[in-house]
Amino acid sequence: MRRLVVLATTLALVVAACGDDRDVRSSSGAGAEGGSRVSAVAAVYPLAWLAAQVAPDADVTLLSVGGGQAHDLELSPGQRGAVETAGVVLFVGDIDYQPQVEQAVEAARGEVVSLVEVAGPDRLLEASEGDDHSDEEGGGDGDEHADEEGAIDAHLWFDPEIMSDLAVRTGEAFAAADPDDAEAYRENAEAVRVELAALGEDLEELLGADCRHDEAIVSHEAYGDLLSPFGYAQHGVTGINPEAGASSAELGELVDEIEEEGFEHVLTEPVEGREGAETVAREAGIELLEISPLDAVGDDDAEAGFPALVRAQAEQFRTALGCP
Known about the structure:
This protein is an alpha/beta fold. The protein contains eleven helices and ten strands. A four-stranded parallel sheet has the order 4-3-5-6, sandwiched between helices. The chain is globular, with a radius of gyration of 20 Å. The termini are far apart.
């Protein structure tokens, strides 16, 4: 099961679907006919967006929200209760990304949807995949840390094909939790699948060209599922585990690499690895570009919708990679 980042209060989440006139929102649970609707809990923003698209009348509670720390979330008793009683629970999976959420999901009485299980083992990326900078000690070129060996990249939502499969699975979960509206959930899931297929085409257009660089410098290695399908790698100031940090020597090596390879940008998140990214950019004399792993987003970003946010990240990587 996967990690949940739960709000202390019910979140009124409003996310406008890109290319779609449906809204993603947390409702009171009253449907068009005033009947009770299934409740859902989602661990991270992309899963909440998906749940609200598939079940627009459902009461969707997002557990990790704007600017908050999605990794290693500590749940309150109320949050645990929400996970246990929801009709549908969507979480990342049993990969030690959010241990307390994963533990809480074990007691869930509703339908449980695991992003990792939907993806399957063949589509999971480990810390050593998608880059050329790992060695036995994890020091190498600074791309992998010793305590990350075998760690799974939780940010699978950057792969539209995985999210498309997740949409279908989510539709079935809501159908099981609320059989009276089963057909509507399945139809909505198919509409989301089509929308995500269009997102995949957009990413191909943005990142499918022959770019100047074959890797991007990032503050936190969370973008393998966005880059790997197009043959690009990420070199992180920190690895998959943002708490691992980087030594002064590693930062110095990264500055040297930037100067040798002619990189012009460092991509940085608001929190994860930012201090190191700012140091590297300053020492190398290059520009910072803002990115987000999308596990927790602010209200303004949520209103843009998940597909638009993924496109925005791809556009930043397009710039950093020097794509035509």
